[in-house]
Amino acid sequence: MARKIFPDHWSFMLGEIALYSFIVLLLSGVILTAFFVPSMDQVKYSGGLAQLQGTEMSKAFESTIHMSFDVPGGLLMRQIHHWAALIFTAAIVTHMARIFFTGAFRKPREINWLVGFTLMIMSLAAGFTGYSLPDDVLSGNGLRIIDGVILSIPIIGRYISYGLFGGQFPGDVLIPRMFTAHILLIPGIILALVALHLFLVFMQKHTQYPGGGRTDKNVVGLPLFPVYTAKAGGFFFVVFGSIALLGAAFQINPVWNYGPYDPSPVSAGTQPDWYMLFIDGGLRIMPGMFEVVLGGYTLSLNILIPAVVMPGLFFGFLALYPWIEKWATGDRGERHVLDRPRNAPVRTGLGVAIITFYVVLVLEGSNDIVAKLFSLSINDLTIMFRFLVFALPVAAFMITKRIAMGLQRKDRELVLHGEETGRIVRFKSGEYIEVHEPISEQERWVLVSYANLKPHEIGPEANEHGVRRKGLRWRRFTAALSRFYFEDRVEPVTPAELAEAQEHHATEIEAKKNAEPYDAASSHV
């Protein structure tokens, strides 16, 4: 294991940021657990913060205020913990984006993609449960929204809500239950998934970017010990120091400004943390007229669709994507060399479309702040975002795909004709040409080493005996999916094309040099 070879590229460190942020979360969480009281029993505040003196609040909120103002270093630990949670989720999402755009999820890593996806879901659960523990107005309103979402689920919603809150919202058992989940259940699952993820990384070959000599049968890089051991150790302190700097210098979640939870005040300008903001945006963007009454039962589609169906489809697509692309390509072999995003234009376009869809919902989740910042009508903004949430992802997909294919054509031109030097030469015949410099073999390897995938052929619908073949509908589906991926493509340069281009250039230059006698008086270089 000490001689395990790892490729050397900065993007492989994104997963380590997530791992180190989780370590910081565990360390700071141990300190916070010693002072937090997970109880919803009501008390009157008598601590050191004058503005809250005599205010009735839960013990959870009181202990949070006590931790922030009366425990030395308590506020710093709270803020380090919160910033580490944000960076933990952000690092996982960025790491998954790198894996998605480079095709690192392909065989044999489909299961590891699911492990990473589950880690992302667990990070959302950890963040939400931790965010809700202080029992302040902001977190209480978030829990009330979640209760409304749960109640919108047909038939079982009310039972889930009753079981979660121990009765009618807010009940008196939610904070202790979330505390148990936050410090025991969810971290335990995350630790198990991290261990499984690292085990699979060690057991399988590490992916590597294309380059000279790099194939699906080898790994070009440096050993785990001592090189990556030293790099990883130093990088942990870089991440830890950055999080500590954020916690010390930038205030986050000042719960004393919001006050203890009370169902009556709901202020403007409030949003959840960024990773949950797209659901809030979905709720705001959905028209409020979509309610259906079936057999005396009201279906609140204006809540069910944006907060349950949309996230389910969104995350379901992400979880199943490795198999969706496998159906499209028909590729069953192992792939250890990564794709350049331009060489997979449809996948890259889909990724940019997903990000665009998410960003539009995040902006809608902050529509009141955006409206105030730019002096716009909040109603006009919502109407505009209702249009953009459908139009922008499609436009982003089409534009990204065309850009990627344009870059592929540029790479093809570069391989066949070389780099432009900016030097103009005049031949004896009087013709001017620009001199091109051939690229190196290493550069050429990167530009030509990608798979030439083509759309599937369905084949005959019946066999030689006229009997309809089984699975025809499935083959039609995979063929249509394959055409969507590969109907528009730029084929890589073949060795024969490269040899022909080099021979043609050499012959052309030699012929033009000898076309007619050289006239020194009128020739220039």
TrEMBL record:
MF annotations from Gene Ontology: metal ion binding; oxidoreductase activity; quinol-cytochrome-c reductase activity
Domain Cytochrome b/b6 C-terminal region profile, chain residue ranges per copy: 211-406
Domain Cytochrome b/b6 N-terminal region profile, chain residue ranges per copy: 1-210
Name of the top EC class for this enzyme: translocase
Membrane topology reported for the UniProt record: Multi-pass membrane protein
Cofactor(s) of this protein: heme
Cellular compartment(s): Cell membrane
Database matches in InterPro entries: Cyt_b/b6_C, Cyt_b/b6_N, Cytb/b6-like_sf, Di-haem_cyt_TM
GO cellular component, one term: plasma membrane
Membrane-spanning residues: 12-37, 80-101, 113-133, 179-202, 232-253, 303-324, 344-363, 383-400
Keyword annotations: Cell membrane, Electron transport, Heme, Iron, Membrane, Metal-binding, Respiratory chain, Translocase, Transmembrane, Transmembrane helix, Transport
GO biological process: respiratory electron transport chain
Catalytic activity: a quinol + 2 Fe(III)-[cytochrome c](out) = a quinone + 2 Fe(II)-[cytochrome c](out) + 2 H(+)(out)
EC number: 7.1.1.8
Protein name: Cytochrome bc1 complex cytochrome b subunit
